[in-house]
Amino acid sequence: MSQLSSTETAPLVSGETPQAGISADDAEGEEAQQPQTDELREGWAAQMAEALGDGYCEHHIVCSSDLWVRVTRQAWVDAAIFARDRLGCDFFDWLSAIDWLPSPYGRDMDAQTDNPPQRPVESVEQGYGGGHTRFQMLLRLHSTATHTGINIKADLPDSDMSIDTLIGVFAGANWHEREAWEMFGIVFNNHPDLRHIYLPGEFEGNPMRKDFPLLARRVKPWPGIVDVELMPGEDGS
Amino acid sequence: MNQAQAPALDVDKRRQSAYVATQAADARLNLEIETDGMTLNIGPQHPATHGTLRLVARLDGEQVVEAEPIMGYMHRGYEKLTEVRTYPQVTTLINRIDWLGSFANEVPFILAAEKLMEVEAPPRAVWIRTVLFELSRIANISLFLGDMAVQLGALTPVFMAFRDREFVLNQIEAVTGGRFHPNFNRIGGLKDDLPKGWIENTKAVMGRMRDFCDEFDELVLGNEIFQARCRGIGIIPADVGLAYGLSGANIRASGVDWDLRRDGSEALAYDQADWKVWTHPDGDSFARYWVRLQETREATKIVDQLLDGLPAGSIMAKVPRIIKVPAGEAYSATENPLGEMGYYIVSKGDLVPFRVKIRSASFSNMSISPWLLKGVFVPDIVTILASLYFILGDIDR
User: Fold this and answer.
1) pTM of whole model > 0.90?
2) What residues make up the domain containing A133?
């Protein structure tokens, strides 16, 4: 599957009705031979760009598969409302965040010491849709009518890790935001009930951050790495 | 522009129904009683709750003023653990999310990884994968069909469910070697082919499961007490359900005709079989049970048809021995027994995923419970929670 990346805004596909969008989606199989065009998703990105104006940053399309749109923190709620009301994404799939910091512990599954972070934060590389910050919000919505999903991302600066809550748009965001709050330490403005959902109340730290060590590996080395047990009689010399 | 105007009506309608929805939960409260409030702690070790879900309900008389599920007693941190496991190792972990349909847990992860690697499993592997997926759905939901009756005080159905589910588990075990945690999916295909004679045996089991469904149709759905306890109880309007992220049979019971098996774009063989997506307009506990019963029957038909047309060929695509997934992001979701289950994989071209977001169905399905339980009577808590059907491992991950 080839990928089409576009950093500038695609031209607005005018006169494309939702019905046309469905048929384009259905005809995916036939279009697979032709070079990458995904009218439905291009159209969605273009509409979003037009509606959000400055709040819109970038989009990325993997042809006939998925769409990523990055918006600013300020346009976060507007983007969700627009996707729900204009793009028909009525299904709240999930909400989470990504920490793009390369793990200072690497894949050290048997790391026994608290290594200091070795790689500088400058080497943070964001994925589809670009970005500039270590933390990114990630929201997925889905349309039950056109059967198309959309991923919406937003940058969160380290200096102010807060973003408006989506509870007013999708009531289901409540628990997902509580999870993102405790796992990543992201503050959701106007969230009525921001407290631990999985972790005990006195838990300190945000476990899903990359610089939070996997404590289980401090206690016991990963058996997959040190599973060579000595046979009886062998001293290991 | 047509586009901007056409859905505008929907927006008004949606606002209206959103308003009604928020009011409805409050309106269910009958404030005339006004006794001294009481807090009822249900669980975490209560027979009426599955696993270790704890429910704190504030009561006014027999009515629930506020109910709050408290989770986390079984949080295992799989999202963090996947960041230190290689891709083939991850399936062992995610098997344990929804432990009643464990084969189905592996599939969306493998599909997402295959999507990133641009690997296609050979047709035979895809078909067998779909068959086993449906078998785990039958094993999973048949237990619900019995368990829901237990919540209403009928003990017999759950024994029947355990008995007949065993035959399905035997078939899964015959292929994968594991009853509960098959760990059978590989990136690019499956571990093994079907054993000899398996197809005939499975068809016999499917016939048996259809009898099981017919039996439950009369025994449970036709039962007066069951209907009295479930009809009109725990009604979820479609709009509210979608906003809470309800999926699977829960949302189809509210009249939303949406099934990822039919509507999703994942590489599974569902389009090769002739089957039907069942919906129910009522949205109550009865409807959720009804839809699941129909789905089980439908799943047996899918299995039968797929086994008839099973293509020959290899069961494993050519993949490197050491699996490195190219950098990128992909999301794959399938219609699991409990609802939509998806994995969002962020890869940096390494042996291990950079980040995996696990979208489990029960977490979203349960998030509606504070809204849904507001204003219901205490005995209905049990039926409503049972009809939402959650697995604790699927909530806590």
Assistant:
1) no
2) 3-219
